[in-house]
Model the fold of this input.
Amino acid sequence: MRSVILAGLIACGSSHAAEVYKCINATGIPAFQDHPCANGDQESKVHIVNTSAAPAAPASDDSPAPAEPALAPSRVQMKAGTPSMWLCVRPEDGSQYMSRDGVSQPRMVPAGVLGIPGKNLAQAYGPNGIGVSAPGVRTVPIDRSAQAAVAGDYVAVQDQCSQASHGQVCTYLQKQYDDVHQKLKRAFKDEQAVLQPQEDQLLKDLGGC
Done:
């Protein structure tokens, strides 16, 4: 109870310090209060410092806005000797592959692999085209133009590529080296002429890993 009273007195005092009365009665029990002690009690003043932090002043409209954190560089930092590579994702199946230039050309894929509903037979062959899907009934001309591809429920897609990290590049290069090295062991002389430069280049690229 004395602790509660003392805490209350500090809260009621100034933000820096407060003086309270310490009263000791005939039985020797001390008490703290903000007014003089009763007659017969031993009285003394106690100077109490309030160490609680003052609330921060609200920012005025004229105060400068806090500085924004610096953005991380968009380019991945690679160690010397390690080539920059890009990790690409095919939208139709989510499969990944590595590219040395990050350039992905648009291509046409069936709309069905992207989850787009396809056409039924009546929509595909028209009202007078019943039976054209049956083999040998009628020869169907093939139109390979871009317009025909769109009409045939094909959609243009482009792989999304982002620069690979140093660890991803080294893992890929090591796997490529292992594959070429195993092929080189079993290769004929004419195949060795193609595989050996590949292995040499991969060893050079792995020098930064």
